[in-house]
């Protein structure tokens, strides 16, 4: 795999995804019963925005660096606190950006567990070091995240939350997401799931939704953050989050997060949308 999370760490899509993730974790951990989080494509866990990978795209400059100077709505409080904690306070420039493993582990309680899957050898080594530093019940798994999600459904002592954020380098990622979720929900109907998707053109998103409908998955919330008009399928024009079995109130979180990022960082013609697949 050539993709690395480090190339895009802190970009607009991370802001949407990670603000939503921190809010979803807050709502899931409001339930006192233990939680297992399976992160199918975990990455390295923590990113140095000044390293050699970042100058290739400078995406953080147009993402977290711009957001860091704004007055943020309450839905960004969790992400803001996590970034601040890794950078010495709110007034410091953002040099270190936490990925999903740290954002999840920040909110784990005694009895909760995190499993982060990563295929790249170098990122897996970094992930292991990051997870050991959390002091939580968290481990990395070097292997296929889709398969791991299915294997871990047998842990019935904990509620299950599956986070799916693939690189979409493989032509079958859209298919495997739906196939994996269908098997997860067959084994654990009460599981929660959050899927991140790049938004280049409507047909790709519509095709994914048709697969969801055909697989008869649980009702899904779809939040789109269109940063510009969808008229160039060669560019990432936005992103979407698809949530299944989300706790009450998460719909409002998604709406507020996507709208704020589009309004503050988007271009003319951008749009935030929230809708349901049932």
The name of the CATH architecture is 3-Layer(aba) Sandwich
Shape: globular
- Summed up, the domain count is 1
Q: pLDDT below 50 for ≥5 consecutive residues: which ranges?
A: none
Strand content: 15-25%
Number of strands: 10
Biggest sheet, strands in spatial order? Answer: 5-4-1-6-7-9-8-10
Largest sheet: 8 strands, mixed
CATH superfamily: Vaccinia Virus protein VP39
Task: List the secondary-structure elements in sequence, H or E.
Answer: HEEHHEHEHEHEHEHEEHE
Radius of gyration: 17 Å
- At the first level of CATH, the class is Alpha Beta
Helix content: 25-40%
Number of helices: 9
* CATH fold description: Rossmann fold
Q: What's the rounded overall pLDDT mean?
A: 93
What can you tell me about this protein's structure?
There is one protein chain. Strand 6, helix 7 and strand 7 form a beta-alpha-beta unit. An eight-stranded mixed β-sheet has the order 5-4-1-6-7-9-8-10, with helices on both faces. Helix 1 (12-28) crosses helix 3, helix 6 runs parallel beside helix 7 and helix 7 packs parallel to helix 8. The chain is globular, with a radius of gyration of 17 Å. The protein has 278 residues and is of the alpha/beta class. The chain has a single domain (5-277), classed as Vaccinia Virus protein VP39 (Rossmann fold), CATH 3.40.50.150. The protein contains nine helices and ten strands. The model has no long low-confidence stretch (mean pLDDT 93).
